[in-house]
Every structure is written in C-alpha cells, then in structure tokens.
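Why do we bother with a discrete structure alphabet at all? Because it lets us treat a fold like text: something you can write down, compare, and reason about line by line. To make this less abstract, here is a complete entry for UPF0173 metal-dependent hydrolase BVG16_01790. Read it the way you would read a sentence in a foreign language you are learning: slowly, and without expecting to understand everything at once.
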Amino acid sequence: MELQFIGHSCFIVSSDHYKVIIDPFIHGNPLANVDVCDIQVDAVLLTHGHSDHTADALEIALQNDCPIIANFEICQYFGSQGAKVFAMNTGGSHTFPFGTVKFTQAMHSSSLETDNGVIYGGLAGGILLTMNGKTFYHAGDTALFSDLKLIGEHRIDVAAVPIGDVFTMGPQEALLAAEWIGAKAVIPVHYDTFPAIEQDAKAWVMEATNEGLHGIFLRPSASYVVE
C-alpha cells in the first residue's frame, strides 16, 4: 500500500493496480500542487460532506466513471448530480475489487453546500481502508472520543489524524488519539490550509516520536509506502 498525501485531509491510496482517493480538496486548496484532471482512480471515498473534503469529488468521479463511496445522504446528493454512488453508513463494511471499506464513528458535523443552500450531510465518519492486507485508518474530522480505542482493535498499519484544532481536535488531543488508535505509524492532517488551523506538524511528529509513536510528516504530494 502506498499513501500519497495531496494536502489538507486528502490522500490517494494505491495497491497493486488499484487507486482510490479520500476526501478530495484540490481546487481552492492553496497547498495542493496536483491537477484534478490528472487524477486517475477507481473510487472516491468521503468521510463527510464539508467542502474541504468533497470539493472535487464529483469532477473526479465523473472523469473516471467511478463510484463515490460515502454515507447515504452524501450519496443521495451526488447521485442526483449524475455520479455513480455506493451508499454506506457508520459501522458498515463492504469489499470492493480494490479492497474493503468500513465506516467508523467520528465526532463532527456534516453538511453539503449546494446552489439551493446548505443541506444535511448525514453523520460524519472515519474510514478503515484495507488493501492487499494493509489497513489505513482515516479518522476524518473528529474530536477526541473514547471509542478510538475500539477502532484501534482493527490492527491498523497507518492512521491519519487531524491536528488543526478549532474545527477538530488539536495537537495534544491528537497525540492521545494516536496512542489509543495504536497504529504502526501516524500522519498528521487537517492543518495549515487556512489561518485558523495553522499548526507545526513537524513538531507534532517529533513529539509523537518522543512518546513512542511512529510519526510521519508528509509534504503535499509526498508518499509513504506501508511495508
């Protein structure tokens, strides 16, 4: 499994000849340095409905003729826009040709901005993605909550946790979350994209490592190979 960090909370995850993208936010993201037109994937996975996680979902799904995999409400919306969709919900899992997706709980809100105003985006969640025997946990946008310990029972190889504060848990709570999750490696996300969530991710990774965790700092477009 290879994880390419696109920026903010977006990753392209690949294994063998399959690729999926999680929470695509490229247009409007000043830190992203890839072109949406160049993205070739087999599925689009969404943790929740906010625009900094879904901004490019429809365009990518349509240009690749691939499904958007998300909660029921988000899929209802994108399905009405012409996308292929596969609706799931918290606690559910499904095996696709590229691997297995399981939606987990997250403590956050979810909505979609449309031409007709803001609509309900279902429950926010996290994603456990297993490809070729390796599991990546994308925590989504979340506060700290005790069931992260339960999610950690899934033998996670790599986890991505938000550290930006204001809209999600902050750096110190993210360290505790990483400890509870117990992944072999942890990547900080959801920081620096706009002023309210500016954080020192390198310092966070160093502190995580000092606490016995394997912190990974990735610049946008950099990759990490899961051994």
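What the structure line is telling us, in plain words: Helices lie at 51-54, 57-64, 72-80, 148-151, 171-181, 201-210. Residues 2-225 form a domain with the Metallo-beta-lactamase; Chain A fold (CATH 3.60.15.10).
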